[in-house]
Amino acid sequence: MTTLYGYFRSSAAYRVRIAMHLKGLAFEQAPVNLVKGEQRGEDNLARNPQGLVPSLVTDDGLVLNQSLAICEYLDETHPEPALLPGDAAGRARVRALAQLVACEVHPLNNLRVLKYLVGELGVEEDAKLAWYRYWIAEGFQALEAMLTREAGTGDFCHGDTPTLADLCLVPQVFNAERFECDLSAYPRIRRIVANCRALPAFEQAAPGAQPDAG
Amino acid sequence: MTTLYGYFRSSAAYRVRIAMHLKGLAFEQAPVNLVKGEQRGEDNLARNPQGLVPSLVTDDGLVLNQSLAICEYLDETHPEPALLPGDAAGRARVRALAQLVACEVHPLNNLRVLKYLVGELGVEEDAKLAWYRYWIAEGFQALEAMLTREAGTGDFCHGDTPTLADLCLVPQVFNAERFECDLSAYPRIRRIVANCRALPAFEQAAPGAQPDAG
Question: What H or E segment, with its residue span, contains residue B3?
Fold first, then answer.
């Protein structure tokens, strides 16, 4: 059976879990404990030379890395329900919204980066939190502006069904809440996230619902 | 005419320039000077609420953001030569290699991040350089391992023609060289980059060949 190597709190793994549940695909989960450093163990490095999660190993042995690449693969091989719109301009918008989170916000607030700040640079807890919240605010201000002024927005980031953009947004908001970021300035983001959370697929994919949730 | 709002040294703009030249598409360039802070000006924020570059504005007025989303749009609307392989597994591999650079290396070494380290966190020049080189080494070690052990690698990251992965790799290596990172441990990366640089499209897209090169 297809196996997802992930961690309950990893936002990147969370994105893939949402995609799997939205498409109704069966999968096993194999937890890689990021706090214990298992991502740097030989087993995980053999699958994922970056020492990260998630990896998806399909039942025919294909090893896939990088959450957005995995989600696009799932969308190509199991097209329904679609995670990307049918038109090129719409796909470009959804990918741009997804990448705003995946390339501009999430990478800066990753566990390994926070560890470097504290360990190598001797950054204090307060300054670490300020860093975290700064990049969330930078990204969410831009995202809120785009979601508000662009005609493509609907009940979800693009139209009235969840797309790759929502798969990135919901885990990022989960993280922001965990770090007690003030989200009051982002009503459009909050409304979309509420719509997502009302769907069973998002509920099933939530960190607290995973077998390794601590 | 299609206009690329970018900056000669921006790796994200560089990726899009390579795609445009590979596909032989005509475009104008409108420089946004990142050192002068023009990306935060009203004009740029109207196109790109994140205050980043690049944006591509097509001749029918469509505004596209996020370099990988733009490159995929160009690939969908101008399929030849293809930036992604024809099979889903190949596309997943190319996107994963591209995202390794675009989601794990580049975001940490962006100008705005280096500014935060120095300005907000008071990081010294030496420690800033060490940060820069650390994330390059983390990413390139993984990339070198993948390119070496995976059968998909050819003269380029995937097969014998340039793909989205090479579009990300070449600008990242340009940056690494600028920051005097030691690349001797990455022979596979260096060979692929040399093959890319031998192509006119990569030469035309290089920072030094741009109208705003300082």
Answer: strand B3-6
What are the distances in angstroms from CA B34 to CA A50, A143, B202?
30, 21, 22
Rounded to whole angstroms, how far apart are CA atoms B39 and A6? 37
For tokens 């975001």, name the residue: B107
CB A87: neighbour CB atoms within 10 A?
Answer: 10
* Pairing status of strand A3-6 against strand A28-31: parallel
pLDDT at A214 > cutoff 80: no
Q: A103, B103: Cβ pair inside 8 Å?
A: yes
The amino acid occupying position B118 is V
B3-81 and B88-201: identical CATH topology: no
User: Tokens representing A153?
Assistant: 């927005």
Is the per-residue pLDDT at B192 higher than 90? yes
The hierarchical CATH code for the domain B88-201 is 1.20.1050.10
- Listed by start position, the domains of chain B span 3-81, 88-201
DSSP secondary structure letter of residue A6:
E
Option in A66, A96, A106 nearest B100 (CB): A66
Strand order in the sheet with A3-6: A28-31, A3-6, A55-57, A63-65
Say how many Å lie between the first and final Cα of chain A, rounded. Answer: 25
Locate B5 and state its tokens: 């709002």
Cα B208 from Cα B214, distance rounded (Å):
8
Contact list, B120 vs chain A (CB under 8 Å): 127, 130-131, 134
DSSP state of A159: B
Residue A133 has pLDDT above 90, yes or no: yes
In angstroms, the CA A32 to CA B34 distance is: 40
CATH number at B3-81: 3.40.30.10
Q: Which of A47, A112, A121, A144 to probe the B interface (max B CBs under 10 A)?
A: A121
Strands B28-31 and B3-6: parallel
Which chain B residue is nearest to residue A95, measuring alpha carbons? B69
Question: What pLDDT score was predicted for residue B186?
Answer: 98
Answer yes or no: is the ipTM higher than 0.95.
yes
Q: How many whole angstroms separate alpha carbon B65 and alpha carbon A8?
A: 31
Contact between A131 and B108 using a beta-carbon 8 Å cutoff: no
